[in-house]
Amino acid sequence: MDRLTHWEQVYRTKEPDQVSWFQADARLSREMIVGAVPDRTASIIDIGAGASTLADGLLGAGYRHLTVMDLSSAALELAKARLGPLASSVTWQTADVLTAALPAQAFDVWHDRAVFHFLTDAVDRARYVAQVCHAVRPGGIVLVATFAEDGPLRCSGLEVARYSAAELHAQFGPAFTVLTSDRELHTTPSGATQAFTYCVLQLARAGHVTVGV
Known about the structure:
Blueprint: H1 3-13, H2 27-36, E1 43-47, H3 54-60, E2 65-70, H4 73-83, E3 90-94, E4 107-113, H5 122-135, E5 136-147, E6 154-155, E7 158-159, H6 165-172, E8 176-187, E9 193-203
Parallel strand pairs: 1-2, 1-4, 2-3, 4-5
Antiparallel strand pairs: 5-9, 6-7, 8-9
């Protein structure tokens, strides 16, 4: 089963609060974004957002330039329905992050909770980092959350990779500086505990580092 078919099936057969990664409030992501980029005019993209509530929280915090991307159109329709009239304040993009046509240097913040750890192939990870370097403005912020070293080995029936903050930074390379990192013990709807690593990186400003991806 390809990625698109897999995730469409997930979001067409389960309610948003039935998937293991569900958060009623994406608190840690929101707080880390607010802490790193307090400017409410910042342009933010949420990668592989699914039906995440992060957009709700960011809109509530005063951010207005939000793009939400996911491979699954079903997931985005769920998020739009939840937001109601506020959905018109968001740019919605149905696409695979590895192949999406993203505008160059368009985003101040790139957010990804629980996409990068599904990229178990080194070639796919390199394509992902290349997309980040293309789409994020020099000096921009990249917040990536993955399963931690002691997190699950599989999720949604798929194998995943697990990272410490240092290991996650190493995947992105010297063009990025770690600003802060954190650990989250996420409780799933079924009551299980999953350990996540959150890492806030900053892409070097123009002329500081040559990006070689």
